[in-house]
TrEMBL record:
Belongs to the succinate dehydrogenase/fumarate reductase iron-sulfur protein family. Pathway: Carbohydrate metabolism; tricarboxylic acid cycle. Pfam families: Fer2_3 (PF13085), Fer4_8 (PF13183). InterPro entries: 2Fe-2S_ferredoxin-like_sf, 2Fe-2S_ferredoxin-type, 2Fe2S_fd_BS, 4Fe4S_Fe-S-bd, Beta-grasp_dom_sf, Helical_ferredxn, SDH/FRD_Iron-Sulfur, Succ_DH/fum_Rdtase_Fe-S. CDD domains: fer2. It comes from the Bacteria. This is Succinate dehydrogenase/fumarate reductase iron-sulfur subunit. Keywords: 2Fe-2S, 4Fe-4S, Iron, Iron-sulfur, Metal-binding, Oxidoreductase.
Amino acid sequence: MAYQAKLRVWRGDATSGELQDFEVEANEGEVVLDLIHRLQATQTPDLAVRWNCKAGKCGSCSAEVNGRPKLLCMTRMSTFDEDEVITVTPMRTFPVIRDLVTDVSYNYEKAREIPSFTPPEGLEPGEYRMQQVDVERSQEFRKCIECFLCQDTCHVIRDHEENKESFAGPRFLMRVAELEMHPLDDADRVEAVQSAHGLGFCNITKCCTEVCPEGIHITDNALIPMKERVADRRYDPIVWLGNKIFKR
Ligand code: SF4
Ligand code: F3S
Ligand code: FES
């Protein structure tokens, strides 16, 4: 049954903004993005919102619903009471461009800082061979849709703008882990993950894992194993000696 939902939407730009209240028709089976689109179509034609697939796969519609990082297209209206005020705001960690759209270029800068996959010299693409167990390990990380909700929620940069320069954030620390665990990657990433990408800032709060719409175990499967490798490299004398002799 259709009803009038109460939406409170942040409207503004980089200089200023405010929360504005609206009543928008909601129908059975709809998600928050449906209501934002109806609001655009009927009351606020200039409302800015980024979206693309409406299927939880492009990672474009990231925002905050009642203060929690969410994909607007995957947040069902049925999870709220009909008389509840639903507050929709842009991701807090990134600068606002307009309304619900933020400038996520920080993430692209961090992506560029990670040296790409480095196979052994002379190995041709058709000669790559991997164990299934190694394929499965990186497969989980490759489910990432780059919605940047994990980046938005991590307190290291959410509450500390000054950390952005030295911290890559969970999504990109996970990318380093994926490459480090790849049996054909020859680059040594253990030192850099701590010094260049800021793994030491992460204190394993797991908030990134909680908000990941793909259900990736970012903390347990990527960040903690990388921390263990850093600790082994720095503090285990046998590993240290082995690394000196065998280079990895
Ligand atoms: Fe989004 Fe998860 Fe990828 Fe982070 S790891 S960008 S939360 S899909
Ligand atoms: Fe941040 Fe995730 Fe670590 S939220 S502190 S990167 S466990
Ligand atoms: Fe693509 Fe929401 S519109 S993930």
